[in-house]
Amino acid sequence: MSYFKTIADMRVDYTEWLTRRGDELPARLKTAAGAIVNFETICSRHAVVGDSEATVHALKELGQKTGATHFLTWHNIGSVPHAVVKESMEQFAREVMPQL
After folding, report:
1. How far apart are CA 1 and CA 48, in angstroms?
2. Are 75 and 85 in contact (CB under 8 A)?
3. Within a 13 Å sphere around the CA of 54, how many CA atoms are in the beta-carbon half?
């Protein structure tokens, strides 16, 4: 969550800076500028969180919707211990990647 809080804070700072300059906000910032980024928002809009089966399903669906053929995965989020990050990456490679 610390990563997403940093991003949200930067977004608020950026919108305030544009407003002070008198610049019009881009459409992507008008609707959600300053919105609170919580765990539910991250899970539903910014990440795939779940077991291997749910991850395969979500990434296949995302690929179909967007035409994406490559995904960048991020397993080291915040203060997750190295052993857990390594285990997550190995599980992803073993159980998810072959099905994509």
Report:
1. 14
2. yes
3. 7
Q: What's the rounded Cα separation, in Å, for the pair 29 and 71? A: 25
Q: Six-digit token pair at 35?
A: 């919105």
| Helix segments in the chain, DSSP class H | 2-21, 27-30, 39-41, 52-66, 82-91
pLDDT tens readout for residues 39-56: 777 777 778 888 999 999
Q: Give the mean pLDDT of 18-47.
A: 71
| Whole-structure pTM value | 0.63
